[in-house]
Structures are given as structure tokens and as C-alpha cells.
Amino acid sequence: MEKLAILGGMGPLATKVFYEKIIAHEDAKSDNEHLDILISSHASMPDRTQVILKGLHKSLVLKEVEKDLKIFEAYGAKNLAIPCNTFHYFYEDVKKLTKINIINMPYETLKELSKRGKKFIVLGTDGTKKGKVYKKFNAEFQMEEIETDQKTQEKIMEIIYKIKETNMTKSKELNDIIRTYKKLGAISILACTELSCIEIEDDLKDTIIDPLEILTKKSIELSGQKYK
């Protein structure tokens, strides 16, 4: 099996949930059958949304990432998972800094979503929206994207940063937003890994797609382990 690296800490709770998902879905019956994984919880990484919204230079993030990449390369990692949707705004730039295969979470999510043939809504940070993280990768799939209105987007940002602050795992407000778009026939992409930490009501689970789940499956399979 191949070694896996995780660039996490964006945020820490999402990284914890991601690692737990990997453990739960590996087809392993003993310690030695689990993947070798190196996690960098780089919580001091500059706020990706602020870098995008304020038009700050990408080097603020990239110079920090380079430190992690050197450690991952020395470790011998073959694949790198980054459980942060907004971070994928820098995907092409980071690819140029390493030979490690970086799993493209937004692309893999849209690829899976395209099998359903549905229109979708991106529930994510202002940075993910302004940076057109999903929009640019959707160019290949040409699916219909519904835009959030300003009031809904403000509410989503409140939920995301409240999760970062309190580590909450329940949000009636998020479920209500998903239900609203369900009525419009749209699949809600939980395009912020903080939102992936929230319990989704049973009647809504068929109208969401969780990039963290997609990243989990891809990380396990690319590392040579079976996904269960």
C-alpha cells in the first residue's frame, strides 16, 4: 500500500472527522492492515477565504504549504489529501510545488455528481464562491449550478464559523437551507468541510453530496486499500 499524507487543520474538527472516516471505511482487520498516514494539522495556515476576498498574494498560503510538502516528500507520501474546499483555489499552484499526487476533492465530487445528472448548489465559504472553485472544475461536466442569494450565503458563513468556534455537530439552519434547495430539485454540495461535520436529517441525505466522503473513498483506493 502507498503512504498517504493529509494537509489538515483547516479546520481541525474537519481533519479529525476526515481521519475517522478513513479508519471507518478501510477494509482493515488489524493495525497493520490500516494505511500509513502522516497528518499535518496546519491550523496556523492563513485564512484562505480572507486571502481570496482581499486579493492578497497567493504566496501567503503557498510559502506555508511548501513546509508541509517537504515533510510529506521526506515521508515518502504518494498521495496528498487536503480536507478543505476553499484551499483548492490554490490547487494548480500547489501542484507545481511537488511530485506528490494531490487528490482534487472538488473535481472528484463533481465527477461523482455528474452520474446523477442533477443541477446543484454550492454551500461553502465566500472564498470558495468568489474563487469559483467548483465553477472552474464544472467546466468539464457542464452541469447547471444554482447560485445562493446573499441572505442565504451570509447564513452559511455564520454556520461555518460557528462550527469552527464551537465544534458543534448539529444545525437546524443548515438542514433548512438544504431542504429549500431540495424543493428546487438541486443537490446541495457540502462545499466546506465544516459543513461535513453536521448531522444531516434522514429525509435530506439523498439530496446532498459530501466532498469529504468522496475524498475519503478516493484516498483509500488510491493508497491501495479497499473501501468498505
Automatic annotation (TrEMBL):
One of its GO terms (molecular function) is aspartate racemase activity. The keyword Isomerase applies. Its EC number is 5.1.1.13. It is an enzyme of class 5 (isomerase). The keyword Isomerase applies. Keywords: Isomerase. PANTHER family: ASPARTATE-GLUTAMATE RACEMASE FAMILY, GLUTAMATE RACEMASE. Belongs to the aspartate/glutamate racemases family. This is Aspartate racemase.
